[in-house]
Amino acid sequence: KDISGKQDDLKKSITEGFRETGSSLKDISGKQDQIIDRIDCAREEIVSEVSGMRSDLKGRTEERLQRIESDVTEIKAGMRS
């Protein structure tokens, strides 16, 4: 009887707990959707920013390479003279 009574108490506690948290679980689900949307927006912004930074870096690197090639060409021309 003692075990049966504890099982009944446990069942009652679980049932009450689900009733109490039922509405808050719906709230959590809604907030979870908001968080997912924010993460998606942030991800898009981050990808865009990184893409822009890569383009800038590539452009600057190409400019530096052209200047170096130009300098090397001038040095070679000076050495031949």
What does this structure look like?
The structure is a single chain. With 81 residues, the protein is mainly α. The chain has one helix spanning 2-80. It has one domain. The protein is 98% helix and 0% strand. The protein is rod-shaped.
Please give the radius of gyration in angstroms: 33 Å
Biggest beta sheet attributes: none
Q: What's the helix count? A: 1
| CA-based shape | rod-shaped
Order of helices and strands: H
Could you tell me how far the N terminus lies from the C terminus, measured between alpha carbons in angstroms?
110 Å
Tally the beta strands: 0
Q: Averaging pLDDT over every residue, what do you get?
A: 83
What are the low-pLDDT stretches, counting only 5+ consecutive residues below 50? none
Structural class: mainly alpha
Layout of secondary structure:
Layout: H1 2-80
Structure keywords:
81 residues, mainly alpha, 98% helix
Short description:
With 81 residues, the protein is an all-alpha fold.
